[in-house]
Amino acid sequence: MTVQVAAVGIGTFGRRTEPLVELLAEAAESALAGVGRGAVDLLVVGTMAAGALADSENLTAALADRLGLEGAVGHRVEAASATGAAAFHAGVAAIAGGSARRVLVVAGEKMTDRSTPEVTRQLARSLAPEEWAAGATMPGLAALVAQTYLDRYAQTPNVFDAVTVAARAAGARNPAAHLQRAVTADEVSASPPVALPLRRFHCAPISDGAAAAVLEPGPGAVEVVGLGEAFDALRLGERTETTTFRATRLAARQAYEASTLTRKSIDVAEVHDAFAPFALFDVEDLGFVGPGEGGRLFLGAQRPPSPAINPSGGLLARGHPVGASGLAQIVEIVRQLTGAAGDHQVGGSPHVGLAQSIGGLAAHNFVTIVARGSGM
Amino acid sequence: MRRCRSCRAVTGRRPGLCPRCGGKDHDPIELDGRGTVIAATEIASPPADVPGPDRIALVSLPESVAVVVAVAGPLPAAGDPITVRWDGRRFVGGDGPGPAADAGRGEGDVPVAGRSRRPFEPPR
Predict the structure, then answer these.
(1) Within this chain, do residues B48 and B102 fall inside the same structural domain, yes or no?
(2) Burial, B19: exposed, middle or buried (Cβ in 10 Å; 0-12, 13-18, 19+)?
(3) Is the same domain home to B75 and B38?
(4) Interface test with A, best of B41, B67, B75, B121 (most A CBs within 10 A)
(5) pLDDT at site B117
(6) ipTM of model
(7) Which of A64, A141, A226, A298 could form a cystine bridge with A369, CB 3.0-4.6 A?
(8) Does the residue B10 lie in any domain?
(9) Considering the domain boundaries, does residue B124 fall inside one?
(10) In angstroms, rounded to a whole number, what is the distance separating the alpha carbons of residues A338 and A223?
(11) Residue of chain A with shortest Cα separation from B43
(12) Which domain holds residue B58?
């Protein structure tokens, strides 16, 4: 059965004062306003660490209560920093399998109530226990894979600077982004070290925020045409390669095959750039460019890049509420395909868009392809 | 560290079935103790319970697997030889004094006064 994205919603990302359930409700109500007040059969809520980061549990019931969804059923989904994508995929499966006629998917995180070291500690819990016992953190392991990338392809951290500059320039056009100030390459390379070669401006900010989508049987203006999901070894050292993310490549292959499309069909993509080097891995793993060539899409060698990458500003500028990001990417792609992206709308009337999300240190990745459908 | 009895692949510390052949029987192997640094970094903002700064490295081992180690001593460079040992809950690389962050990193051992620390046992 064809599944359509009937409506999407998103709140402003950044430092928010409301409790998590209110952020979720804001995004949900924004999405539901796009379809009218019909009955929701299934509520899927995504958060990565609501208990640890926001002192909130039982969020599916809390949100159902808040929204008045007594007739629905629901559950919560978690896939680390890919939680939002996982929640969306769960919703698609329910429509495709015929067990629901309208699914509300809502994903969010409230992170700024905690200090940076506390958040870092909690996010490191997505790693293998002996790795975080050795002192590894998400930025720490990201720095190790980033350095192996630079060494293998004889590049310098300037290529990471270029990713951040592009992201922040896009974020400056997105009124819902956490970071809306453009930065220069010099500012990026002068920002404080986090774990070299990564500096602060190479890392997505700690953000609050939520996104939502309403799924229904198609046809519709925007239809889901391909999904992919894959695991990799949890321990970095047990991966076969560290200059590419195998879980992205496997998920992309599934999604392309399911959609009967190829990378050449993708007009616009939102890729997971929690750390600037990940954007390079992503565009290579998705097949947009060859191994080691990711920088071409960010260094100005190809303007405008094809496909358009992260018009929202990506995680680096839109912000990275860990549970929300995977769904926020899909919301952005849907808006791009419907011409509803405002000041950061890409040109050329895009028909097909792709979102790619990384869970943990790329141990559980997702690819989602959506396209303009016959119901436009 | 384990080796799959069927396909002989070193499967590291991953519990469960062999990821290469699906075999369910494994034999423990002793580490040679020598490794080569693939990449190393110093973490400027370690987690809340860690005094820091912390140094970690990705180290390839002759057993055809790599490990993330806590670095004892100065930060090594890519290509450097490094000794690797298992200290009961993590790999430690280098011969220097143990990393400053030795205390308080196990499951449930948030340093709260009056609460006993459970030793951390990673999955085998």
Answers:
(1) yes
(2) middle
(3) yes
(4) B41
(5) 35
(6) 0.93
(7) A226
(8) yes
(9) no
(10) 11
(11) A195
(12) 34-109
